[in-house]
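dumping this here so i dont lose it again. seq + smiles for NAP
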Amino acid sequence: MLSNKITDYPLIHGLMRVQNLSAEDLEKLINYELKEGIEVLDTADIYGRGKSEELIGAILKKNPSLRGKIYIQTKVGIVKGDEPRYDFSYEYIKKGVEASLERLNCQYVDMLILHRPDALMEPEEVGRAINELYDEGKIRHFGVSNMNPYQMELIASAVKLPIEVNQLQFGLMHTGLIDAGLKVNNHMEEAISYDLGTLDYCRLHHITPQAWSPFIVGFFEDSFVDNPKYLELNKELEILALKNGVSKHAVAVAWILRHPAHFQVVYGSMNEQHIADILVARNVKLSKEEWYRLYRAAGHVII
Ligand SMILES: NC(=O)c1ccc[n+]([C@@H]2O[C@H](COP(=O)([O-])OP(=O)(O)OC[C@H]3O[C@@H](n4cnc5c(N)ncnc54)[C@H](OP(=O)(O)O)[C@@H]3O)[C@@H](O)[C@H]2O)c1
C-alpha cells in the first residue's frame, strides 16, 4: 500500500537517462527497487523525448497490478525542439498532461510537477489547468521545480492544491540553497542569494525539497565522486565511507538526507549495482561535525 506522505520516501529513482534503456532493463530495476523499498519514479514529458514515460507505460501494460505499487511523478512545462521555451498556458499544461498519461498508460499520476518557471505565466491559467486536472482525477498531488518563493506564492494564489514539493538541484558540489544563509550580511560571493531563500521558504511552508542530480557539479558537468578534480572532497568521502562500511556515493546522499529540511534525493543511475551502493545511504546518519567537514572539503569556508 503506497503512502500518501511524501516524506515517507527519502529516495526517488529519476528516469531521465533513458537513451540506452529497454523496457526489460527498466522492469528489472523497478522490481529490484520495490524489493528494496524504493517506490517513487520521477519522469518528465521531455525525458528521452517521451521515451521515459513510454517505458513506464510499456511495463504497466504488461503488469497492470504494478500501478498500485509505484508512485509516479511527471513534469510538464518545458518545450524542447527548434523553439525552446517554457509554457505554463492552460492548453499546454492540459494537453501535456493528457499526452503524458497516454504514454504512461495510466489514468492518473500521483504527482504533477511544473518543471521550470515560465516568465510569461498567468497564475489564473495555471490554476484553471491544475484544478481541472485534479477534479478530473488525472493528478493526485501537485509540486513545482526550480522555483523561488515568489514564483511559488504566485502559483499558490490560483491553485487549490497545496504545493507539496519543489525539485531543485542540490548536492555537495551544488550548495547554492544553503551558502548565502551561512554568510548573511557579508560582502563575499557566497553571500549572494541566487534563489531568494527558497530552502527556508520550503521549510516554513512544509514543502519538501527534492534534490536532483545529487552527484553532479554545475549544470550537468561531471560527477564529483572519484573525480581527481575534487581530491579533498573525495578524501573525506572515503574516510566516512570506510567508517560506515558504505560507498562514497552513499555518503554523498547521506549528506543531503542529514539536512533537517527532509530532502528527498532523486538519483539517476540505471545500474543496479550503483543503485545498491546509493540505497544504503538510508542507514547512514552523519554527525554535525562530519556534515560540516564534508561541506568544507567541498571548498567552502566557515567564517
Ligand atoms: N527538475 C529538474 O530540472 C531536473 C533536472 C535534472 C535531473 N532531474 C532529475 O534528477 C535525476 C537524477 O539526475 P542525474 O542522473 O543527472 O543525477 P545523479 O544521480 O547525480 O548522477 C548521475 C551520474 O552519477 C553516476 N553514478 C550514480 N551512482 C553511482 C555509483 N554508485 N557508482 C558510480 N557512478 C554512479 C551515474 O552513472 P551510472 O548511470 O553509470 O550509474 C550518472 O552518470 C534525473 O533522472 C531526473 O529525474 C531533474
